[in-house]
From TrEMBL:
Name the record gives this protein: Corrinoid adenosyltransferase
Pfam families cross-referenced by the UniProt entry: Cob_adeno_trans
Domain of life according to the entry: Bacteria
Species this protein is from: Natronospirillum operosum
Metabolic or biological pathway, per its Swiss-Prot or TrEMBL entry: Cofactor biosynthesis; adenosylcobalamin biosynthesis; adenosylcobalamin from cob(II)yrinate a,c-diamide: step 2/7
NCBIfam families with a match to the protein in the record: PduO_Nterm (TIGR00636)
Length: 195
């Protein structure tokens, strides 16, 4: 890391702008900054999940690596044109999903988020990961539609990573529920169609 933060407040954002890693200043409400915020939020939720599960949990090392990967995605957003997320990271998440899913019963219905505090936290992280994915796709597509330079687009691998992350978190929630001996809460609609 080239610079260390010796001073936390700079007052440079007091006029509603923030700086990118490219030294460009943009509005704090710009789509790129919104996407950065969503990625930061999912990272915070994963930290919350880790605190609930504990450092001894089998998935703690994977969750820790995910937090580092999310910082790389933030780096891509802060430095348009840089791609820090490679295809192997997406593949690693897929392998983690397959590993967790191997011991789970088949799923016949939708699951309600909840059942325990840990499972609830994981579902919150999952839903924020989905929001972050949508924000990155919107940023990617806007750059494409406006014929903006390739360097302003979001790397597709980063978006795919967020997609797999939400899948991983869904399967992790199921696995944690099973570990605790809890049952999954299946969706039951009150709307019964007349046959």
């Amino acid at each position: 890391m080239g610079k260390r933060l010796s001073r936390i407040y700079t007052r440079t954002g007091d006029r509603g702008e923030t700086g990118l890693g490219t030294n460009e200043r943009i509005a704090k409400h710009a789509a790129r900054v919104e996407a950065l915020g969503d990625v930061d939020e999912v990272n915070s939720w994963i930290g919350h999940v880790r605190a609930a599960l504990g450092a001894e949990h089998a998935e703690d090392a994977t969750l820790s690596q995910i937090q580092h990967d999310l910082f790389d995605i933030g780096g891509e957003l802060a430095m348009p044109g840089y791609e820090l997320v490679q295809a192997n990271l997406v593949t690693e998440l897929e392998q983690a999903i397959d590993r967790l899913n191997a011991d789970l019963p088949p799923l016949d219905n939708f699951i309600l988020p909840g059942g325990s505090e840990g499972v609830s936290r994981i579902h919150l992280a999952r839903s924020v990961a989905r929001r972050a994915e949508r924000a990155l796709w919107a940023l990617h597509d806007a750059a494409s539609e406006q014929a903006r330079p390739e360097s302003e687009r979001v790397g597709v691998q980063a978006v795919q990573y967020l997609n797999r992350l939400s899948d991983y978190l869904f399967v992790l929630a199921r696995a944690v529920a099973q570990e605790a001996g809890g049952r999954e809460i299946l969706w039951q609609t009150r709307n019964r169609s007349k046959d």
